[in-house]
């Protein structure tokens, strides 16, 4: 329960006084120093505050008084208070905010007296006038705002002569212009043209024999002499002219007195007109003495000319496929390229790439991704062929393999090969570089003593991390991998994590001790080496825990616990920092659930234990 009294505003301050009294749920006034958070919202359900601050407050018999907006870096401006309505929300320390929010009225809005929102009647005395932040009248009283647009149709009182929009007294018709330039000479402006072509001008008339000459230096025309008076070509110039250009010669042109032979005058060629014909060609057959029957043609086969039926040239193997469409026209068993474009003997429908004779067939590679069916974890999807852990058909060997292969999608569930079968596992892809696979997960509610679950063919799935949650009735989440299952995985590191509601200490570390890894795989031996700093390293979530490194040299651990190697007090200390007794126990001794606790001290406390490997 709380009461709010707002101080009435007399001027226009940049702060707002706020007083009230707070009582706890038993009606006892709050006492001493606490932190109060204030937030202003535009409605009772809005999730985004428009102003807020948090300040330490001293309570006396529940009463307090603060000034909001006193921080110059976070002022309570008039713009904020211009919104209506406004609601104030309070929060004490880390408790939930008080509900419902309180409506701000009357006094806070007196702040707005410092800003006039409108003027009704009377004179205005100002150094300048702005509208919407844009200056329209300057300090001299001159209008500097946007030019007011005018339209011809909006003008009234237009004289009769302008009513049609034309000044008839000064408008020349086309006939007027032609008469003016036809009867009298005119002086055109420099740059005038005729049909877009410039007019060449000269200030004074040229003399007899002169021509207009263009001067590049002055970029203008002037009268000058015609200096190119040589009209005779030399022999060299004629040769150059004939070499570089085609000429049209007149009919009857001769060379050395003989007529020039052209296509029009060339007689038709005749075999009998040829001279010095070789004897073996005199009969026109180069010595061939082969006579073909009707419908046959000469074909050169095996270094000799033979008569061949004409249709055999089109389809030599008589398979009904024309030679140019036949993959092998010498073999009637080989079909047309229309059904086998690369002529590799595999029809188009069964060929992964019918333009590549070396490509695989659909029978060899179902999804035609270049990976044979035997090596493809999903031969129905060309985008999936590697054991990436993203689907049940493509399980990976471990979370570390998924991470190293570049297939990680962050923390979550993936598919793994688990002791000869396929199942889901929880992967931590972020802690200490990621690649961790969850092997033990016990989230227990206080004052309970549920049975452990030793898993032989599945791994526990992480579903909740809130202390006080009871997962003992959830088979998919509750349990740990036994020795046989752990020994089926390759691993070089283990990561331990536990937290309890009894205190704020958190155990979080990793170890690469060969003895520790051998113990969880075989159940034989112990975790004595877990205390060695040469193998064990603290991880970010650890918080002032005694275990496992701080033991004052007393390396205590249970040994040869079999499938309970990770649960039955695998490591503990009887004299840690400040001589506390600290244990890691998961139903240790039959009923003790401990996380850096003294033995037997925590049955009412909630606990969470997890172990990962990579």
Short description:
The protein is mainly beta and 614 residues long.
Structure write-up:
There is one protein chain. This protein has 614 residues and is mainly beta. Among the domains are: 16-107, Immunoglobulin-like (Sandwich); 399-613, no CATH class. 8% of the residues lie in helices and 25% in strands. The chain is built from seven helices and 29 strands. It has helices at 78-81, 174-183, 235-244, 310-314, 399-404, 483-487, 514-522; strands spanning 2-6, 16-22, 32-41, 51-59, 63-68, 86-92, 102-104, 129-131, 134-137, 193-194, 197-198, 210-215, 220-225, 254-255, 258-259, 296-301, 304-309, 412-418, 421-428, 436-444, 454-455, 479-481, 494-500, 506-511, 536-538, 571-573, 582-588, 592-597, 607-613. The strands form nine sheets. Strands 18, 19, 20, 21, 22, 23, 24, 25 and 29 form a nine-stranded mixed β-sheet that branches. The protein has a four-stranded antiparallel β-sheet with strand order 4-3-6-7, with no helix packed on it. Strands 1-2-5 form a three-stranded antiparallel β-sheet, with no helix packed on it. The two termini are 53 Å apart. The model is unreliable at 1-11 (pLDDT under 50).
């Amino acid at each position: 329960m709380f009461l709010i009294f707002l101080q009435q505003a007399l001027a226009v301050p940049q702060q707002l006084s706020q007083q009230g009294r707070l009582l706890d749920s038993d009606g006892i006034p709050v006492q001493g120093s606490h932190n109060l958070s204030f937030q202003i919202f535009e409605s009772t359900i809005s999730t985004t505050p428009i102003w807020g601050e948090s300040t330490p407050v001293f309570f006396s018999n529940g009463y307090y008084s603060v000034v909001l907006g006193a921080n110059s870096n976070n002022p309570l401006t008039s713009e904020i208070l211009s919104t209506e309505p406004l609601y104030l929300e309070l929060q004490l320390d880390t408790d939930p905010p008080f509900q419902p929010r309180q409506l701000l009225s009357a006094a806070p809005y007196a702040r707005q007296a410092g800003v006039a929102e409108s003027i009704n009647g009377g004179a205005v005395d100002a150094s300048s006038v702005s509208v919407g932040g844009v200056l329209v009248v300057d300090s001299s009283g001159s209008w500097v705002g946007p030019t007011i647009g005018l339209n011809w149709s909006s003008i009234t009182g237009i004289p009769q002569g302008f009513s049609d929009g034309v000044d008839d007294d000064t408008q020349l018709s086309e006939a007027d212009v032609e008469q003016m330039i036809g009867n009298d000479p005119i002086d055109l402006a420099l740059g005038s043209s005729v049909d877009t072509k410039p007019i060449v001008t000269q200030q004074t008339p040229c003399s007899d024999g002169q021509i207009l000459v263009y001067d590049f230096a002055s970029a203008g025309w002037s009268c000058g002499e015609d200096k190119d008076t040589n009209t005779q070509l030399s022999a060299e110039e004629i040769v150059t002219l004939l070499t570089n250009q085609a000429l049209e010669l007149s009919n009857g042109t001769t060379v050395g007195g003989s007529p020039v032979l052209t296509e029009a005058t060339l007689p038709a060629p005749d075999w009998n007109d040829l001279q010095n014909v070789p004897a073996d060609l005199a009969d026109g057959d180069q010595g061939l003495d082969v006579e073909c029957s009707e419908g046959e043609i000469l074909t050169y086969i095996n270094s000799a000319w033979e008569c061949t039926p004409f249709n055999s040239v089109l389809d030599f193997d008589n398979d009904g496929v024309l030679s140019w469409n036949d993959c092998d026209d010498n073999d009637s068993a080989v079909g047309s390229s229309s059904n086998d474009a690369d002529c590799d003997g595999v029809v188009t429908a069964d060929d992964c790439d019918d333009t590549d004779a070396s490509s695989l067939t659909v029978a060899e590679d179902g999804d035609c991704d270049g990976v044979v069916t035997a090596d493809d974890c999903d031969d129905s999807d060309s985008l999936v062929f590697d054991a990436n852990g993203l689907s049940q058909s493509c399980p990976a060997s471990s979370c570390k393999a998924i991470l190293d292969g570049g297939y990680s999608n962050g923390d979550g569930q993936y598919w793994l090969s688990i002791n000869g079968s396929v199942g889901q596992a929880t992967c931590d892809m972020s802690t200490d570089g990621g690649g961790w696979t969850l092997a033990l997960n016990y989230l227990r509610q206080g004052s309970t003593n549920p049975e452990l679950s030793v898993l032989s063919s599945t791994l526990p799935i992480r579903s909740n991390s809130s202390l006080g949650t009871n997962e003992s009735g959830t088979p998919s989440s509750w349990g740990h991998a036994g020795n046989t299952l752990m020994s089926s995985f390759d691993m070089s590191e283990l990561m331990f994590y536990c937290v309890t509601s009894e205190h704020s200490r958190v155990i979080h570390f990793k170890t690469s001790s060969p003895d520790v890894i051998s113990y969880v795989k075989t159940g034989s031996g112990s975790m004595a080496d877990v205390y060695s700093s040469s193998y064990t390293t603290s991880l970010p979530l650890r918080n002032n825990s005694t275990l496992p490194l701080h033991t004052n040299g007393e390396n205590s651990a249970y040994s040869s616990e079999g499938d309970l190697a990770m649960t039955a007090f695998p490591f503990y200390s009887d004299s840690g920092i400040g001589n506390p007794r600290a244990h890691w126990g998961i139903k240790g001794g039959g009923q003790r659930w401990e996380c850096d606790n003294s033995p037997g001290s925590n049955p009412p406390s909630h606990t969470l234990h997890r172990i990962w490997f990579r």
